[in-house]
Recover the amino acids of this structure.
């Protein structure tokens, strides 16, 4: 059974701006679903509609099999973690976590037991009497999590919860949230604009663009078989390289910038078609096999574990990830090979994947 | 070491300037105090200098034990101080208690004519008691509020300043807190009591200080609305003393002593709440 089910959700603001344009989505029980997309794509609005903080213009929302359209946020059996944590600054950590339970009339000893359980789970030992301003960013984040878990809701909603943390802490909290979510097995909807966060945390990845869902799948599915140029370019860092060209003879893609890429499979039947070839930086080979073209090396970025090569081919630039075995000097002309299996083809006009 | 010298000279000059400015501001108070330590007649004859006279003990004892007021057929000091205290407290507390919910309503709730309501409240800022004193007196008289604490305070309680200030405070409370409270199942009233009021604590304190002094210093309205001596306030007493002349000489020593004594409660309130008061005025982080 789907724990959260969205059918035909739309949101139009009074000024006529439509920010969510018909969303259908089923989130399975116990899974973590990540809504990812650029800012303004409607992902946060969608989450806030699930929470009941934003009115729904059209469509149905069900949480745990119950239509929640007419319910207040507090009655929807959800808990939310906000971007700025939204902790009550004048209350102690204990009171912050207990506030939702008190409002529901939970017995005092039950509240105490649940808060102490959260304290252990989230490593908040000895911090219960402190005020939020006396805590570090990571600790505040954990308190916000604690406030969510003591309620034992049907679903957690996360609204960009890590974007206020520094990079190192973000990586750490990412793991913590994911571990905790799996341990508790609570269905979660997680909104982020960070593709790395989306890829690493999701059971179900939903890529959104301009108020619509572009693609739904596991992170691996979406990464390996993006349905559009938008998805392909959004996921992965460094981003996928896009090279426009025309398919001339069977299986021979002639790039506008110069050079030939050999294609296989159904692409061989698309003679004369204008396409955009997408190639991930890690798929590009340097001085291996038959070269597709020769490109000038403009810049080398050292990552420690690998190197990023910035190459120029005519007017286009592309990025390749290579190991550290070979040293390259900038200004060199390098033979670049592109394996046929790693090429994604997109319609030049619509941006949809061809295959 | 030489490099420090001009720095130290500058600091010294700045401090000297500040001390002089403070002394300048304090001068009238000092003269009021000095005048209260001489005989009543000395003030007019010009015998009063920079230093206190020898009559300090005598003036303050007779002012405080009421013999001075009695001799001039004026209401006793104690009851006037008490009346002023009651009036100032009622005005300060009354304004705060009414303004908090009204500011909460116009800030957090969407109801028809909300901005109209706000502007109507706001416009009363332009109509203080002094401007509408005749009609207000008429209303108070018709309602039978003359010579009562209600009459002393009610017309001064109704005003927009506090509502306006609280609205500005509430606007700085982040929206996410409101949303978190909604998800936490807090009703609007609970959110008001549990979150909004505690977060406005310093602003409430600052406003209390300002309103207490405002209430304490009222002169014109109490003068109009009370005729019985038992409702006389300390500020009114100071006014009457300056006009009274007992056995011929104006009693400047008693007038000044009463003025000094009338000053002490507001000063006490400011000093007691200074820390919160300053934080309320400068604090922006919520």
């Amino acid at each position: 059974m789907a724990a959260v089910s969205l059918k035909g959700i739309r949101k139009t603001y009074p000024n006529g701006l439509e920010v969510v344009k018909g969303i259908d989505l089923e989130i399975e029980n116990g899974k973590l679903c990540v809504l990812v997309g650029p800012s303004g794509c409607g992902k946060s609005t969608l989450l806030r509609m699930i929470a009941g903080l934003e009115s729904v213009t059209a469509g149905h929302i069900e949480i745990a099999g119950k239509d929640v359209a007419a319910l207040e946020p507090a009655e929807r059996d959800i808990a939310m973690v906000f971007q700025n944590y939204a902790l009550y600054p004048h209350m102690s950590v204990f009171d912050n976590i207990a506030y939702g339970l008190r409002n529901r009339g939970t017995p005092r000893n039950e509240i105490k037991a649940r808060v102490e359980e959260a304290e252990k789970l989230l490593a908040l030992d000895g911090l219960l009497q402190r005020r939020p301003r006396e805590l570090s960013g990571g600790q505040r984040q954990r308190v916000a999590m604690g406030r969510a878990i003591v309620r034992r809701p049907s679903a957690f909603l996360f609204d960009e919860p890590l974007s206020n943390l520094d990079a190192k802490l973000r990586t750490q909290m990412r793991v913590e949230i994911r571990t905790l979510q799996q341990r508790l097995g609570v269905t979660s909807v997680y909104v982020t604009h960070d593709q790395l966060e989306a890829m690493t945390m999701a059971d179900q990845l939903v890529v959104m663009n301009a108020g619509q869902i572009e693609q739904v799948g596991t992170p691996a599915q979406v990464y390996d078989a993006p349905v559009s140029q938008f998805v392909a370019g959004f996921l992965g860092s460094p981003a996928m390289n896009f090279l426009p060209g025309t398919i001339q003879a069977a299986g021979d893609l002639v790039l506008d910038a110069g050079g030939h890429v050999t294609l296989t499979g159904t692409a061989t039947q698309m003679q004369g078609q204008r396409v955009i070839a997408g190639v991930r930086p890690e798929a590009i080979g340097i001085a291996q096999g038959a070269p597709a073209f020769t490109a000038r090396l403009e810049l080398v970025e050292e990552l420690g574990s690998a190197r990023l090569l910035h190459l120029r081919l005519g007017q286009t630039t592309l990025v390749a990830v290579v190991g550290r075995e070979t040293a390259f000097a900038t200004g060199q002309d390098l033979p670049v090979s592109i394996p046929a299996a790693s090429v994604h083809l997109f319609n030049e006009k619509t941006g949809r994947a061809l295959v | 070491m030489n490099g420090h010298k001009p720095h130290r000279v500058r600091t010294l000059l700045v401090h000297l300037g500040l001390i002089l400015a403070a002394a300048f501001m304090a001068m009238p108070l000092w003269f009021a105090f000095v005048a209260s330590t001489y005989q009543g007649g000395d003030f007019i004859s010009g015998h009063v200098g920079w230093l206190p006279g020898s009559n300090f003990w005598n003036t303050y004892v007779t002012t405080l034990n009421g013999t001075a007021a009695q001799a001039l057929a004026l209401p006793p000091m104690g009851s006037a101080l008490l009346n002023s205290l009651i009036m100032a407290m009622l005005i300060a507390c009354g304004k705060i208690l009414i303004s908090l919910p009204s500011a909460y309503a116009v800030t957090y709730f969407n109801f028809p004519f909300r901005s109209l309501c706000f502007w109507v409240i706001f416009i009363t800022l332009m109509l203080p008691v002094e401007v509408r004193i005749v009609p207000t007196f008429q209303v108070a008289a018709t309602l039978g509020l003359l010579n009562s604490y209600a009459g002393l305070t009610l017309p001064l309680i109704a005003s927009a300043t506090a509502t306006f200030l609280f609205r500005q405070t509430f606007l700085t409370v982040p929206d996410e807190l409101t949303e978190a409270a909604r998800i936490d199942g807090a009703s609007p009233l609970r959110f008001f009591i549990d979150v909004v009021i505690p977060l406005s604590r310093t602003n409430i304190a600052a406003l209390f200080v300002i309103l207490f002094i405002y209430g304490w210093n009222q002169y014109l309205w109490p003068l109009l609305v009370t005729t019985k001596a038992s409702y006389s306030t300390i500020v009114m007493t100071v006014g009457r003393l300056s006009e009274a002349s007992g056995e011929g000489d104006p009693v400047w020593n008693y007038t000044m002593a009463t003025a000094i004594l009338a000053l002490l409660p507001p000063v006490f309130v400011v000093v007691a709440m200074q820390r919160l008061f300053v934080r309320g005025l400068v604090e922006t982080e919520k």
About this structure: Residues 177 and 195 of chain B are 8 Å apart (CA to CA).
